[in-house]
Design brief:
5 helices
Amino acid sequence: MTRWPIPEPMLKALEQAHKAAEAGEVPIGAVIVKHGQVIACGRNAPRERHDPTSHAEIEAIRAAALALGNERLEGCELWVTLEPCAMCAGAIAHARIARVYYGASDPKGGAVEHGARVFEHPQCLHRPDVYSGIAAAEASTLLKAFFAARR
């Protein structure tokens, strides 16, 4: 699918997405990296936890904040398989994450390059660098297969 090697953090995010799918959750995974080391992982878990905020990004942000002992994740990178929604984009800004790398675009629910475009608003006090399309085909295929199996 991808013509070049998938970066290790995105491979780990895809692993988390597979774990979400195995648990019956929408297959989205995320990891947070600081100084080249994965410090936290997250996967979608809203149904499992009965918590609508348990998106992969939020789970990874919570785990990273605990690991670092700080709510500010300055200098960190977030790698996620799907374009973040408005809630997750807001959390990314509040956490002061430096860079966001995501796989598949989400024209319906995304809020980075689609929809609300959270980071473009003047009220957004922190704007991470954003890189899209990393392992997009793999992330998209996983999502499509998940939803096709449920129709």
